[in-house]
């Protein structure tokens, strides 16, 4: 029934992929909703002279939240652009460790953003900050983004640890063998 | 220490970090933050960055980027992108160098609806690369062609870079789009000429297709006559003074589709007609066009049955990966830009050029060279946002014998070409990286080699556009 | 003693009137008056990072020393300032609005702005309605899609029967060129920078005071930066801020406004007109509900809206006569 995985090969990191994918699908759905909202607003404005009020602001919020939701997928898929031309000669384990360290640095920034958005959200709540066009409080948006940044941070920490203990290979940006 | 040397140390540190595998976005973020803290204090850095990520991500102007990327991913998922490529392949496949030319043609068509260079490169990296392999096109030449073809996403209007230029330079977006049309078509033509020359010298880079290209969907008999009538009617309307109306333009496009092309590309053409027609028919703004395009792409895909939930999900995952990558770069670029502003380096550089006492054209060339140099090491968007506030007033005071609006539009087109070069040229060419993410087995050096002829074509085009402003301005004058 | 350089951050481009004709000369005057011991270095166009809504917090948290910003960039945070943005409260001339705001600010906004040192609080002159359709009566506004400058001005436009559209200023030229909006409501000073003179034909003013609306501004400073100044540096700054700055600002908006308006009239490309006094009375009547709603809204925040409106009107009358 259970086939034991050969040592040092792909570990079970499906939870990372699943979490990142779930966030990406949520963000993608939100982006689609923003696209639909603009389309409806534009058609309403064109045909019936009645655009959706504050559509600009809602698109901004939807895209802002979506991007936070997307960060985990970029991380899980090693989607950030890096140059590995100069380190091609190094052993894969060294490269994996380097990548893991950079993942940790990124995780630190993401964790900082999660904290910052939480603190900023609490301040916005105290100050009674609202959206520009609508009298809705802005802090729930900050809080949501704080949670999403926190989840992206978790994913980055997980990939970092797996790379440092060599349970995940280094990111491949270009070929490791030159053809010519 | 002078601001200039601090900035140089910053650049140096960033390049070292990039060389040891640090993601480019993170390198900008790390060096930018360190420099900001050094010049302005740790406390200032913390409060500057605290909610800044959200403020940068939640930007109306930048919202077009994920929408264009989504549009590309959906176009690929629904098969629309490969249909577009196949249509071009059917016409060009047997020509020498026809396969790379088909990439350029498909990118040109897609560029008419998508305004992002990276989205175009990513879309055709996935849609065209397997076909190029099948046709035994040299791997580096193929990826180089796609990286260069991707820049047609911004060179052919609509264009994110032009939107940002227009907003920063306070210019009319619609006029800039009109101005970009001829230079954009020139770009596509020049790229094809570059391919023709390369293939003539080294035929083995792109052998002609041996296998029969896939058959086109048969067209009903009435298609050609109807298309011909539509084109004639469009020309007629144009000649009696309807040059400005959408009707003529749209009729022309529809006619051409019926007359020349495959019925297979009708869904893609429908999206193009809605987006282009909507923008030029004053139904929505170019910025809104991105949202309408993505929504239309989704709706047509679902209606056609070519997009099911599984494929949409894949499109979402691709959108997420690319969008997260780009926005982290934008964030890093913003922080790095704030650090540079504190050092006063970009302003100093711009002032040096402005105060140099050179002739107007020499000053413009100086700026373009500065852009090519800056574009080699930093993000093009950040570069524009940082330098335009300084360059723009200088450019507008120079005497070219044109109105200041004409100068601003012409300069915008020149900046656009320089940005396209920066996106494809080493050491940091975003498009090359994006294509390489898809074609991991092709060494990046090969892609850079493959891109060189296209960069040369762009440099020649840049020289022509600088020498002859009419290439950019003629259409604007005709249409207004 | 030491020379101090203060960083002033704002979001407008360096070619804007606010940068070139208000902040730059003001910075120069501070350097001259202090004999070079106090300098103000201006960073336009958000060069030091962030987005306009973050400016106020950048001053509060010491990211920069001084910011030029709009209370309306952070709506809900400074409810008392909104009183001047209500329809038909402000005067037509910035000369009256600016000092009235400053005096009001000295006593009424201290609590809301406790986290910064407000160097000046002021407002611009009258705004006009710029459209491609002639406007003579309220009925002409019906169904017109107009970009509103503030949320309250938006409510006023809705009350007058127009469709109020909210969008960032940089989007205005694009939206006008594409007919996504039919017009916008802004003072003359902003007209050239958003190309409204080229994109619209009719520029409709509201005669005399009170006028349809105004927008308020802050010059806010970090408290620590202010306290760290030596006595004589602070003396120079105090002398050139507050009422002095308010008067400079008022003069700038009135002068530039007149220049722009005169140029458009002289060019003959646009039609500049006013609605009649009788029509204005109808507009005032139609926008009354905006006042009532605002008074109710701020009551929840513990403010006596009616009293604030009365104070604002008295101050504007006081400086309007002068
Ligand atoms: Na395009
Ligand atoms: Na570059």
Automatic annotation (TrEMBL), chain A:
Q: Which segments cross the bilayer? A: 20-48, 101-119, 139-162
Its keywords, alphabetically, are:
Cell inner membrane, Cell membrane, Membrane, Transmembrane, Transmembrane helix, Transport
The protein's topology relative to the membrane is: Multi-pass membrane protein
**So which domain of life are we looking at?**
Bacteria
List the InterPro entries. Answer: DctQ, TRAP_DctQ
Residue intervals of the Tripartite ATP-independent periplasmic transporters DctQ component domain: 35-162
Q: Which PANTHER family match?
A: 2,3-DIKETO-L-GULONATE TRAP TRANSPORTER SMALL PERMEASE PROTEIN YIAM, TRAP TRANSPORTER SMALL PERMEASE PROTEIN
Note the subunit structure.
The complex comprises the extracytoplasmic solute receptor protein and the two transmembrane proteins.
What name appears for this protein in its UniProt entry? TRAP transporter small permease protein
Organism from which the protein derives: Ollibium composti
Taxonomic lineage is:
Bacteria, Pseudomonadati, Pseudomonadota, Alphaproteobacteria, Hyphomicrobiales
TrEMBL record, chain B:
- Tell me the ranges covered by the TRAP C4-dicarboxylate transport system permease DctM subunit domain, including all copies: 11-471
Matching InterPro entries = DctM (IPR010656), TRAP_DctM (IPR004681)
Q: Where in the cell is it found?
A: Cell inner membrane
Membrane topology according to the record: Multi-pass membrane protein
Q: From what superkingdom does this record's organism come?
A: Bacteria
Looking at the UniProt entry, the stretches that span the membrane are 7-37, 57-81, 102-125, 145-167, 179-201, 221-241, 248-277, 283-303, 324-345, 357-374, 381-402, 408-434, 455-476
Q: Which UniProt keywords apply?
A: Cell inner membrane, Cell membrane, Membrane, Transmembrane, Transmembrane helix, Transport
Major site of localization recorded for this protein: membrane
User: What job does the chain carry out?
Assistant: Part of the tripartite ATP-independent periplasmic (TRAP) transport system.
Instruction: State what protein this is by name.
Output: TRAP transporter large permease
Taxonomic lineage from the root: Bacteria, Pseudomonadati, Pseudomonadota, Alphaproteobacteria, Hyphomicrobiales
């Amino acid at each position: 029934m259970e086939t034991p995985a050969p040592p040092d090969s792909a570990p079970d990191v499906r939870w990372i992929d699943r979490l990142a994918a779930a966030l990406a699908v949520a963000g993608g759905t939100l982006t689609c909703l923003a696209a639909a909202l603009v389309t409806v607003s534009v058609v309403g404005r064109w045909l019936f002279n009645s655009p959706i009020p504050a559509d600009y602001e809602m698109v901004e919020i939807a895209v802002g939240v979506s991007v936070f939701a997307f960060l985990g997928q970029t991380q899980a898929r090693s989607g950030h652009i890096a140059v590995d031309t100069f380190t091609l000669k190094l052993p894969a384990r060294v490269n994996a460790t380097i990548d893991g360290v950079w993942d940790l640095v990124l995780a630190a920034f993401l964790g900082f953003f999660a904290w910052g958005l939480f603190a900023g959200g609490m301040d916005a709540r105290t100050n009674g900050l609202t959206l520009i066009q609508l009298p809705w409080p802005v802090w729930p948006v900050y809080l949501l983004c704080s949670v999403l940044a926190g989840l992206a941070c978790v994913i980055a920490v997980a990939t970092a640890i797996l790379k440092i203990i060599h349970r995940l290979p280094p990111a491949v940006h270009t070929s490791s063998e030159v053809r010519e | 220490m002078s601001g200039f040397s601090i900035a140089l140390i910053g650049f140096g540190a960033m390049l070292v970090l990039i060389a040891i595998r640090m993601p480019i976005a993170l390198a900008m973020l790390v060096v930018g933050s360190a420099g900001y803290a050094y010049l302005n204090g740790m406390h200032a850095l913390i409060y500057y960055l605290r909610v800044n990520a959200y403020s940068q991500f939640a930007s109306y102007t930048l919202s077009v980027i994920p929408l264009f990327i989504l549009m590309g991913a959906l176009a690929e998922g629904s098969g629309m992108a490969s249909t577009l490529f196949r249509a071009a392949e059917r016409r060009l496949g047997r020509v020498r160098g026809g396969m790379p030319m088909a990439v350029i043609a498909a990118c040109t068509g897609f560029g008419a609806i998508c305004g992002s260079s990276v989205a175009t490169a990513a879309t055709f990296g996935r849609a065209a690369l397997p076909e190029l392999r099948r046709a035994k096109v040299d791997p580096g030449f193929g990826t180089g062609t796609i990286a260069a073809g991707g820049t047609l996403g911004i060179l052919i209007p609509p264009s994110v870079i032009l939107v940002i230029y227009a907003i920063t330079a306070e210019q009319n977006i619609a006029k800039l789009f009109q101005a970009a049309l001829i230079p954009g078509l020139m770009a596509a033509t020049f790229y094809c000429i570059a391919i023709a020359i390369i293939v003539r010298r080294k035929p083995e880079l792109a052998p002609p297709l041996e296998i029969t290209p896939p058959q086109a969907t048969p067209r009903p008999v009435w298609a050609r006559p109807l298309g011909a009538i539509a084109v004639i009617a469009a020309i007629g309307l144009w000649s009696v003074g309807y040059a400005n109306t959408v009707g003529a333009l749209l009729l022309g496009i529809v006619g051409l589709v019926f007359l020349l092309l495959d019925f297979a590309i009708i869904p893609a053409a429908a999206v193009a007609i809605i987006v282009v027609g909507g923008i030029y028919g004053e139904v929505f703004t170019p910025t809104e066009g991105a949202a309408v395009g993505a929504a239309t792409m989704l709706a047509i895909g679902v209606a056609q049955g070519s997009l099911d939930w599984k494929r949409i999900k894949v499109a979402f995952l691709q959108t997420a990966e690319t969008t997260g990558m780009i926005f982290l770069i934008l964030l890093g670029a913003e922080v790095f830009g704030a650090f540079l502003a504190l050092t006063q380096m970009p302003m100093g550089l711009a002032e040096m050029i402005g105060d140099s006492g050179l002739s107007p054209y020499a000053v413009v060339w100086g700026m373009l060279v500065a852009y090519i140099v800056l574009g080699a090491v930093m993000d093009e968007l950040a570069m524009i946002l940082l330098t335009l506030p300084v360059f723009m007033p200088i450019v507008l005071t120079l005497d070219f014998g044109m109105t200041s609006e004409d100068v601003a539009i012409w300069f915008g087109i020149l900046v656009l070409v320089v940005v396209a070069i920066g996106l494809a040229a080493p050491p940091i060419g975003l498009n090359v990286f994006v294509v390489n993410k898809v074609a991991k087995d092709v060494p990046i050096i090969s892609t850079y080699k493959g891109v060189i002829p296209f960069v040369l074509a762009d440099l020649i085009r840049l020289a022509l556009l600088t020498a002859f402003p009419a290439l950019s301005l003629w259409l604007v004058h005709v249409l207004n | 003693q030491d020379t101090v350089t203060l960083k002033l951050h704002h979001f407008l481009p360096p070619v804007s009137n606010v940068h070139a004709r208000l902040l730059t000369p003001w910075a120069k005057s501070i350097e001259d008056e202090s004999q070079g011991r106090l300098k103000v270095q201006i960073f336009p166009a958000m060069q030091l990072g962030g987005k306009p809504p973050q400016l106020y917090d950048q001053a509060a948290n010491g990211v920069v020393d001084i910011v030029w910003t709009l209370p309306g960039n952070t709506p809900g945070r400074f409810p008392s300032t909104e009183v001047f943005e209500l329809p038909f409260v402000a005067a037509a001339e910035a000369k009256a609005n600016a000092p009235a705001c400053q005096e009001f600010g000295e006593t009424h906004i201290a609590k809301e702005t406790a986290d910064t040192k407000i160097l000046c609080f002021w407002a611009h002159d009258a705004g006009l309605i710029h459209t491609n359709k002639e406007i003579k009566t309220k009925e002409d506004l019906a169904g017109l899609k107009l970009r509103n400058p503030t949320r309250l001005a938006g409510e006023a436009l809705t009350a007058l029967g127009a469709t109020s559209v909210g969008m960032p200023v940089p989007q205005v030229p694009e939206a006008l060129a594409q007919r996504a909006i039919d017009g916008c409501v802004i003072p003359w000073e902003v007209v050239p920078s958003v190309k409204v003179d080229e994109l619209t034909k009719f520029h409709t003013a509201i005669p005399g005071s009170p006028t349809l609306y105004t927008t308020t501004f802050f010059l806010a400073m970090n408290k620590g930066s202010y306290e760290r100044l030596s006595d004589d540096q602070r003396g120079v700054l105090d002398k050139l801020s507050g009422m002095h700055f308010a008067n400079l600002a008022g003069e700038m908006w009135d002068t530039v406004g007149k220049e722009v308006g005169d140029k458009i009239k002289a060019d003959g490309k646009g039609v500049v007109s006013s609605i009649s006094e009788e029509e204005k009375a109808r507009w005032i009547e139609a926008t009354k509900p905006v006042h009532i709603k605002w008074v109710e809204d701020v009551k929840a925040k513990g403010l006596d809206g009616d009293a604030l409106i009365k104070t604002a009107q008295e101050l504007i009358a006081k400086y309007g006569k002068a």
